[in-house]
């Protein structure tokens, strides 16, 4: 029989996948000589088997044997006190291989029953503590294992406090807590789910509940958002309890070896005196900063500093650890690589490399490239900001403006209308994940910097202010209060997650300056990057910004955006309406002048670097007003509207995305083609005369057949005769173009993969409409991720690979790029890093593309993107 249960001392060398993050961290800490309460770990393998088959043969015998070993190590008996020796009580916790904070369930004080309470009271000389431990166990067990709602227990507690006329739990007497325990017991009995008095039954029930909690909706949602595989399973850690609530010389806390918001080096964290760990994590009481320990427990503070140092040295990364002090003695209960903001991630990686803890390459590999745009998040414009109405803790940096919402439902409602939201809650729980995910910012009244709200917001990269104590939130009534001030659902708020300040109304924001440390990291990354990085930009401002972020040219300039200008659109409409060649020529002449000016500015901004201009792509009717507007005006006798209406009806398509657009339009309306290309060539010519070094390239969209490319090239060559040639390329964005790459490649200088359209057409899903079902597809596990966001390697990637291989074979000088939205998504960039010459990303994501490409380089060629 395989071993599936290990003591910490037996777990040496076993993987995190098997032990889960929590079990692994405990085993490593025990090995490093840190004080860890004895524990046993049930592996993820047992969980997977349990979820598959409903039982794990031999598991209980193994657990029993290891439990006996725990009894030996602690000198206590599970569930039974003897004389002045208290019973061995355990915590039962979940621990997946990947950290999933708050997503899974925990039970404390397990093993306690009526007899045990007496023994615990005797042993500690503290009946209040014993009954408090029991009522906590009953509530947790009742919720997690027996399936009762947490509120039922909370209500009974509140009612008792009210009857006694007290506000805090601490004011309840031992007799009160005993009474409460019996209320809980009777309630569970009455609902047909009695609490098991046998400690062993308790343990079995709890272990199975942890296994099952892997499947709970919160856990599923979290996995979906973070792309964590469904089949990992969770380990279970059964650990001897230590108590932080045995008096003022006890307590519990969370420490970070560096500041998770800023990355600043040094011990950082929070401590709650005379409390159990759950009180901190749940944000129910607001803890004090660890710093304060320096004043009243300096030795403990020094000890924690030593722990932090040792943890970092051992794990070679910033750690987030939980600890409990039981009557002055420190115990470590958990450690893991700490979640951090993008800003902290960069600072920590760079500084650890400089300290020699990790290599520069490790520093480069460690930073999540997709998080970089968050580094450049806007901040409140201090000079123009009014007085804040409220101040809380700065939990996740960046500023956000949005409409106040108090529930998931409201967040969904507002966002469905395209209105950004700020989620406002008393505190958050895993139940709130949908609202948090949808919102631009998060504001809570309670909880510290390590509360659920803070941890999750940082992970999501969403600005957050937590523990704003002056705030009273009434979610059911859709309102909140700060002193005499009240705000309701829908009212606009601005929060600043870097300072903790909250403002009523929309406050002006300023874009943050590029980070010096980020530049340093990117400088280390650059030598490992082989893939070129360009930008998708169609204005001179975007081009400049992209260049400042390190773009090596423009990979996609969508020229239609230049048509949408207020003063230009009438000329586009005239072009569409033109009945005679003269009318068409006049409209084209005007548009030519506009385009030439734009091209000059963009080429200037990218002087000396390639600028790929894509000729007109969308169907013409996109430039006409919506049909209902035209109909209304036409009815009112507007003649121009009448003419436009007729044209609009003639041009109307059921399926414009698959319609008369791109190369199809350009070939059948060649005057537009000529006008655009001439504007580009003329712009370049003038710039050259002015002493600049413009590098224009031209490409045609949406081709599906070599004949189209041939015809387009012939058109281009007419103008090349006059101005001299520039690189001529095509987008590969229909599946057929990818399949016929070998025939197309000899006709062009470059391919640029339009993975937006290629994905749309490969999947047969509409870019415009897929939002109605794609999120649910991902939620239900039908797709592992949203393919419009991250490149689908299996299908779309296969088309791409085929076109690359056959295209290169047919034309060895062929240049290859990618310019769909995937060009700025880290995993997709890593996938194409060895296949293509360059990727092209929106300006902010140029940084992501650069880092991701370097990370791919570090993994070596052909490394699979994970
Ligand atoms: C594409 O299809 O990937 C592309 C870049 O073009 P657009 O998004 O403009 O269709
Ligand atoms: Mg396209």
Model description:
The protein is of the alpha/beta class and 866 residues long. The chain contains 34 helices and 31 strands. Mean pLDDT is 91; it is low at 861-866. It binds phosphoenolpyruvate and magnesium ion. The site of phosphoenolpyruvate (PEP) has 10 residues, from strand 25 and helix 30.
What is the strand and helix layout of this fold?
Blueprint (H helix, E strand, L loop, with lengths): L4 E3 L8 H16 L7 E4 L1 H10 L5 H16 L15 E6 L10 E5 L3 H11 L2 H18 L5 H15 L9 H17 L8 H15 L3 H10 L8 E6 L10 E8 L6 E9 L3 H5 L6 E2 L3 H4 L1 H18 L3 E8 L2 E9 L4 H13 L5 H7 L5 H4 L3 E2 L9 E2 L1 E4 L2 E7 L2 H9 L4 E5 L7 H6 L2 E4 L7 H9 L3 E3 L4 E4 L4 E4 L2 E4 L3 E5 L4 E4 L4 E2 L5 H10 L6 E5 L3 H9 L5 E5 L10 H9 L3 H25 L4 E5 L12 H9 L3 H13 L11 H6 L1 H20 L5 E6 L5 H18 L4 E5 L2 H5 L1 H4 L5 E4 L1 H9 L10 H6 L16 H15 L4 E4 L7 H7 L5 E4 L4 H14 L7
Parallel strand pairs: 14-15, 15-16, 16-17, 24-25, 24-31, 25-26, 26-27, 27-28, 28-29, 29-30, 30-31
Antiparallel strand pairs: 1-2, 2-5, 3-4, 3-5, 6-7, 6-9, 7-8, 9-10, 11-23, 12-22, 13-17, 14-21, 18-19, 19-20, 21-22
Helix pairs in contact: 4-5, 5-7, 6-7, 13-14, 13-19, 14-19, 20-22, 21-22, 22-26, 23-24, 26-27, 33-34
């Amino acid at each position: 029989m395989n071993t599936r249960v290990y003591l910490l001392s037996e777990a040496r060398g076993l993987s995190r996948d098997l032990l889960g993050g929590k079990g692994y961290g405990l085993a490593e800490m025990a090995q490093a000589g840190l004080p860890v309460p004895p524990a046993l770990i049930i592996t993820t393998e047992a969980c997977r088997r349990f979820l598959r088959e409903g039982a794990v043969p031999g598991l209980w015998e193994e657990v029993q044997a290891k439990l006996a070993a725990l009894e030996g190590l602690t000198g206590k008996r599970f569930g039974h006190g003897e004389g002045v020796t208290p019973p061995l009580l355990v915590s039962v916790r979940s621990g997946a291989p990947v950290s999933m904070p708050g997503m899974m369930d925990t039970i404390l004080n397990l093993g306690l029953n009526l007899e045990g309470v007496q023994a615990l009271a005797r042993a500690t000389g503290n009946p209040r503590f014993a009954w408090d431990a029991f009522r906590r166990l009953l509530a947790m067990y009742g919720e997690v294992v027996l399936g009762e709602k947490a509120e039922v227990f909370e209500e009974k507690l509140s009612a008792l406090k009210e009857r006694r006329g007290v506000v805090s739990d601490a004011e309840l007497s031992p007799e009160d807590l005993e009474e409460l325990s019996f209320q809980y017991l009777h309630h569970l009995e009455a609902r047909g789910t009695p609490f098991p008095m046998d400690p062993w039954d308790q343990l079995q029930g709890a272990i199975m509940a942890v296994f099952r909690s892997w499947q709970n909706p919160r856990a599923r949602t979290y996995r979906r958002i973070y792309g964590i595989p469904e089949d990992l399973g969770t380990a279970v850690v059964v650990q001897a309890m230590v108590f932080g609530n045995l008096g003022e010389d006890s307590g519990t806390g969370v420490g970070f070896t560096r500041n998770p918001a800023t990355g600043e080096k040094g011990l950082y964290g929070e401590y709650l005196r005379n409390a159990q760990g759950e009180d901190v994590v749940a944000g129910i009481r607001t803890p004090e900063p660890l710093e304060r320990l320096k004043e009243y427990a300096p030795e403990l503070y020094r000890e924690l500093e030593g722990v932090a140092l040792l943890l970092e040295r051992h794990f070679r990364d910033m750690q987030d650890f939980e600890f409990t002090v039981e009557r002055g003695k420190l115990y470590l209960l958990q450690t893991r690589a700490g979640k951090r903001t993008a800003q902290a991630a960069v600072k920590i990686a760079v500084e650890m490399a400089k300290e020699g803890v990790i290599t520069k390459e490790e520093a480069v590999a460690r930073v999540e490239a997709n998080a970089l745009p968050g580094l450049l998040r806007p901040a409140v414009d201090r000079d123009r900001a009014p007085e804040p109405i409220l101040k809380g803790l700065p939990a996740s940096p960046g500023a956000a403006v949005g409409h106040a919402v108090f529930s998931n439902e409201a967040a969904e409602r507002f966002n469905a209308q395209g209105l950004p939201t700020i989620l406002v809650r008393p505190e958050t729980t895993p139940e709130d994940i949908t609202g948090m995910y949808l919102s631009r910012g998060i504001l809570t009244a309670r909880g510290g910097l390590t509360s659920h709200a803070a941890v999750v917001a940082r992970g999501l990269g969403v600005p957050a202010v937590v523990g704003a104590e002056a705030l009273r939130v009434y979610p059911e009534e859709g309102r909140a209060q700060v002193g005499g001030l009240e705000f309701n659902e829908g009212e606009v708020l601005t929060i600043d997650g870097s300072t903790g300040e909250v403002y009523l109304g929309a406050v002006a924001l300023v874009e943050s300056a590029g980070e010096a440390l980020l530049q340093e990291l990117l400088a280390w990354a650059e030598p490992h990057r082989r893939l070129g990085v360009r930008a998708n930009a169609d204005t001179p401002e975007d081009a400049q910004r992209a260049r400042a972020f390190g773009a090596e040219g423009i990979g996609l300039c969508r020229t239609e955006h230049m048509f949408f200008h207020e003063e230009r659109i009438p000329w586009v409409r005239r072009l569409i309406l033109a009945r005679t060649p003269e009318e068409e020529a006049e409209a084209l002449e005007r548009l030519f002048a506009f385009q030439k000016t734009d091209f000059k500015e963009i080429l200037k901004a990218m002087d000396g670097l390639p600028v790929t201009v894509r000729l007109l792509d969308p169907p013409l009717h996109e430039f006409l007003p919506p049909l209902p507007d035209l109909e209304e005006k036409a009815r009112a006798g507007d003649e121009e509207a009448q003419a436009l209406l007729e044209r609009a009806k003639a041009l109307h398509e059921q399926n414009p995305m698959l319609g008369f657009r791109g190369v199809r339009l350009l070939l059948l309306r060649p005057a537009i083609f000529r006008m655009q290309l001439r504007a580009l060539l003329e712009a370049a010519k003038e710039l050259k005369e002015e002493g600049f070094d413009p590098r224009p390239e031209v490409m045609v969209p949406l081709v599906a057949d070599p004949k189209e490319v041939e015809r387009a090239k012939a058109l281009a060559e007419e103008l090349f005769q006059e101005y001299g040639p520039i690189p001529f390329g095509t987008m590969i964005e229909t599946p057929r173009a990818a399949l016929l790459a070998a025939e197309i490649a000899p006709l062009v200088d470059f391919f640029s993969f339009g993975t937006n359209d290629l994905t749309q057409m490969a999947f047969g899903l509409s870019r415009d409409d897929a939002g109605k079902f794609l999120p649910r597809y991902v939620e239900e596990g039908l797709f592992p991720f949203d393919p419009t966001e991250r490149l689908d390697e299996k299908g779309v990637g296969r088309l791409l690979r085929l076109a690359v291989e056959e295209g290169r074979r047919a034309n060895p000088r062929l240049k290859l790029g990618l310019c769909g939205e995937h060009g700025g998504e880290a995993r997709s960039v890593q996938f194409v890093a060895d296949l293509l010459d360059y990727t092209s990303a929106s300006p902010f994501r140029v940084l992501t593309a650069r880092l991701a490409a370097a990370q791919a380089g570090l993994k070596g060629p052909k490394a699979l993107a994970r």
